Amino acid sequence: MTFAIKVENLCKQYGDQQAVKGISFTVEQGTLFAFLGENGAGKSTTIEILCTLLKKSSGQVTINGFTLDASNDNADIRKSIGVVFQQSLLDERLTVRENILHRGKTYGLSKTQLTDNYQFVSTYLHLEDIEEKKYGTLSGGQKRRADIARALIHRPSILFLDEPTTGLDPQTRQFVWQAIKQLQLETNMTVFLTTHYMEEAAVAHQVTVLKQGKIVAQGTPDALKTKYAYDSMALVFQNAQEGVKFLEENAISYTEKQGIYTIRLTSTLQALPLLKKAEPLITSFEVIKGSMDDVFLHIMAEEEVA
Ligand SMILES: Nc1ncnc2c1ncn2[C@@H]1O[C@H](COP(=O)(O)OP(=O)(O)OP(=O)(O)O)[C@@H](O)[C@H]1O
Q: What is the ipTM of this complex?
């Protein structure tokens, strides 16, 4: 297994406050890694350290085989990564194309490399309709596409994205997210992402959850769902009294809210025999898959970390 990122016992102290408290994790090359946590958990601090923008207090970080070294500018790491932060770095007065080409030149790309790489980013980020527009005149979603394109112009092998879709309307969010996913899958790029949208985390290869500067859960979305979420079925009975009698006779525990009876399942398949039995009594039902939202809420509701 080849690791794109390896973090061991990373700590960051701001004055008296310990924002990151000895975290360790690895990110396999060519995977989508989701880094989750509530506000103030330490996500941005960690991502800024990995991107060489902030000095760590202690711990070991290896990016693309290069060791992060507080005593130099980590140029090898910088060349091998692309970064998109929440605040844009593009020049409002330049067009999207000018901005991106200018960025490419700072990496010393040849004319041919610049043309080829521009073509590459343009295809994935759908720049055709915005490339001649001034960055300052673009909508939020268009800006995001340009920001990501700028981060990719030197064809890095790791892309860091800090909440790439926050603040976008659902349709634009979907569009930007599709572009990220397609890029990751088709080019085998490593994508390190922080997000508050659980449907984005649900398609990651690996999820790590941070709370108060410590890792409180990690695993694949499926493994986390198995541990922290559960499937359920909601039933509406023709006659509530008969419904309750049915549930009690079959020793099925339930909760009830506004005439909807919810049963916890061990898997969605468990719904089938139950539905067969309950069919004459019910007017409607819904089988609900455990989600990453449940995982996140469950982890966050657990008591304070030590
Ligand atoms: N420059 C700084 N000086 C002092 N404290 C800081 C600084 N930057 C962050 N912190 C503190 O460190 C903790 C972690 O902040 P950080 O921004 O890394 O969290 P986050 O998980 O990225 O939150 P969000 O989701 O809101 O972006 C917070 O308590 C924050 O107040």
A: 0.96
Coil vs helix vs strand at 89: coil
Domains of the chain: 3-225 (3.40.50.300), 230-289 (3.30.70.80)
For 72, which DSSP code? S
Atom 8 in ligand 1: which residue has the minimum CA distance? 45
The protein residue whose alpha carbon is closest to atom 25 in ligand 1 is: 39
Q: Which residues line ligand 1 (CB under 6 A)?
A: 14, 17, 19, 37, 39-45
- Cα separation of 284 and 305, whole Å? 42
Closest Cα to atom 26 of ligand 1: 39
Distance in Å, CA 39 to ligand 1 centroid: 8
Atom of ligand 1 nearest to the CA of 38: 25
Average pLDDT per block of 10 residues along the chain, 306 residues long = 93 96 97 93 95 94 92 87 89 95 92 94 93 94 92 95 87 87 90 90 94 95 88 95 96 94 90 94 93 87 63
Interval between CA 156 and ligand 1 midpoint (Å): 27
Residue 237 identity: F
Q: Which amino acid is at 261?
A: Y
pTM, two decimal places: 0.85
Q: How far apart are the C-alpha atoms of 177 and 124, rounded to whole Å? A: 11
Quick one: which of 286, 284, 281, 245 has its CA closest to 263?
A: 286
φ and ψ at residue 291, rounded to 5 degrees: -125, 170
- Whether residue 43 contacts residue 212, with contact meaning beta carbons closer than 8 Å, is answered with no
